[in-house]
Amino acid sequence: MITPNPLYPGAKVALVCASSAVPEERLAPAVEAVRALGLQPVVYPSCYYENRHGYFAADDAQRAGDLQSAFADDTIAGVLAIRGGYGAHRLLPLLDLDAIARTPKLFCGYSDVTALHTAFNQCCGFVTFHTPMPSTEYYQPVDGYTAACLRRALFGPVDGPLENPEGMAMTALQSGSAAGLLCGGNLSLLCASLGTPWEIDTRGKLLFLEDIGEQTYRVDAMLTQLRNAGKFDDCAGVLLGAWTDCVPEYPERTLTLPEIFSELIVPAGKPVLSGLACGHTLPTMSLPLGARAAMDTELRRVEVLSR
Length: 307
Prior knowledge:
Rossmann fold, Glucose Oxidase, domain 1, six-stranded mixed sheet, 9 helices, 14 strands, Class_I_gatase-like, Carboxypeptidase_A_C_sf, carboxypeptidase, muramoyltetrapeptide carboxypeptidase activity, hydrolase
């Protein structure tokens, strides 16, 4: 697995939108936020509100073309997804992944961008970064923890402990230790990958999961789908992040998220840590997907390994 070169002060970075449209009033602050990191943002057409296509930032061809062009441009050092939403997985058949594999670059985003992380990790063979996005989080000031984690992802070094903010403890749901490549991201996108050429491959890997706005029975249904597809049996360990606004439809008769995790993930017998400060939440860490990492439930520790 290739780890793309980190960014550097003055590096040109592409801002692309592979999913939903950027709210018009957020584009300028997002661009300024990237500039404040010491980078030179290059705004691609999919970021402009006037190019929107229904609930997408632009039509599929434009969004895919922006991604393809950003990776092909030798002057661009990194590619930042400006926001998530919906629609990135529609682009996968349109991308020349062989060409992207020949020019690996630092690529950042999360949520709907999970579809691209999986494809770039598995088909192109390079590490990508699950990070906050310019028009979703850091178009406005964020906490010091989130900012420091983002800068680590952008500028390195990547290896070392992945620690929660002070006072936010991880919880062991199943004891043990494991090591493997980090994979995963947004649960709904991982489920949408099943049965496609870009299906998530969890074999021997540490699987990270998070989601937002799904009622608990929907989390149950999607975890059941992953369980039935053998993804928990295949993986080396599971890291559970934030489950933001994942509430029961009927609070008086429901399973809680911990109960769902215990019934669907724990029986695979793999180490499980929950409470990782990552996902649709602030503060949030940044994760190098595709990098080799280790987890130890007794120490409540996750670490990115140098090799």
